[in-house]
């Protein structure tokens, strides 16, 4: 519990920064919806673009951009990528930073097991991510209510956002716990940011390739971002086959993290 | 019952053998010194004791319990001062002290904390990252002492401390020793080891050179330094003196026999000698002779 508190206190500023930046960005994007709709965004002619490419960038249904759900679904996919990076960075830094900054020497001189170190850090970072995601979703939902087109159902919007909140939460936890697994093998956090970016973009690209080519559709299973994109969730609801895949990754990464960290020689 | 018992422990990093078949024990209430040149394996040994790193062989028992099996129980009763103090820089000193007590599930004695902070002149409101090297060390010392450990393990604790704080630290440690605590001190400051430790273990190239009782050995051993153009090696050998250093016009001998015999011999040789010095063998001399020997082996 002590390490849990310490970890939360250490990251509270980072959490607030991310919430403020993402919140302002979300409100800014959503507030543009009425003006974009009036400009006739949905009537843009993208027929000259390859269909697969439009599909890959979630632009296959231009008419949907005239609704707040469709517009938000398109704009918010970039925030989803940023969210994945935030979650992955929390994970990859969690254990490696202690060794890089030498604070592991203090921590491990205290009566706390390695399993407790990993467990407390995982819980604390999961809570931080959950808070970030809950506040981000609340801001996004309120923004959509404020700027929705006339006639859009609030109840329907709430239902869609509830599904998105769940899918996005699982997506973030997947990156976070996978980041922990990487962190358990690192002895410095110098490469944590680049690794986080790499993981998120690589898996996102796998999802794009999976969507573009039916032969590679299985690749979508390796893309937590793609399966949690607002446009996908608003259209198909929660797709449990992808959620179960994410949960399997979470459980396996979790077990491997505990196993490897217990055997690790700490760099002090 | 030994408080520290290392039995044939070894550690390899790839092909490099950092510690090789190291065994010694430290009894309860001892002020035990652990010395050796840089890279001898002191920190690696301590890291294995604290289970920071896994050993490749051997057994470690602390406070009667094997490590790492009883790591948690043992760490509740240990205070550790690292050589390079790197605590959480964003935390204030008072928070670090609070967290340390929380990790030990202790409320802590506020009067005692106040006393330590006053003694070591620690500003509790400052952030740890803003402290100087010496002040960081003082915070580490307080964090290692506030939970009343039975075993205090220190790696270069006086590095960065001014002479006043140095003296205060050893006064506190002596008090702790009188209260029954065992102190394990790794240091390059041979004077402080000699002044405060009752026993000392020498380590070289990852192997134990010996464990010596400082209260016994050094008083009996004399270092005789002779200067002159005709140095009497044969006559010194005849009285049991061992030559430990030989230069063109100077030689140093280790002598363990009676002083009457030594001075009688030196008196007879006085005409051939330019200068004679007889001194107790101090730890520095012992360390230097071992270090030079190691360098010789490497060459």
Structure at a glance:
Chain A has 268 residues and is mainly alpha-helical. Helices cover 76% and strands 0% of the residues of chain A.
Give your account of this protein's structure.
The complex is a heterodimer of chains A (268) and B (299). Chain A is mostly helical. Chain A has one domain (2-263). Chain A is 76% helix and 0% strand. Chain A has helices at 2-31, 33-39, 51-56, 68-75, 77-101, 104-109, 114-147, 154-185, 192-212, 224-227, 230-236, 240-263. In chain A, α4 crosses α11 (230-236) and α5 (77-101) runs parallel beside α8 (154-185). The longest helix of chain A has 34 residues, at 114-147. Chain A is elongated. The model of chain A has no long low-confidence stretch (mean pLDDT 89). By secondary structure, chain B is an alpha/beta fold. Chain B has 2 domains: 2-212, 3-Layer(aba) Sandwich (Rossmann fold); 222-280, Alpha-Beta Plaits (2-Layer Sandwich). Chain B contains 11 helices and 14 strands. Chain B has a 6-stranded mixed sheet, sandwiched between helices. Chain B has a 4-stranded antiparallel sheet with strand order 2-1-4-5. In chain B, β9 and β10 (207-213) form a beta hairpin. Chain B is elongated and about 70 Å long. The mean pLDDT of chain B is 89. The chains are: A mainly alpha (268), B alpha/beta (299). Chain B: One of its GO terms (molecular function) is ATP binding. Chain B: Belongs to the ABC transporter superfamily. Chain B: Keywords: ATP-binding, Nucleotide-binding, Transport. Chain B: This is ABC transporter ATP-binding protein. Chain B: Pfam families: ABC_tran (PF00005). Chain A: Keywords: Membrane, Transmembrane, Transmembrane helix.
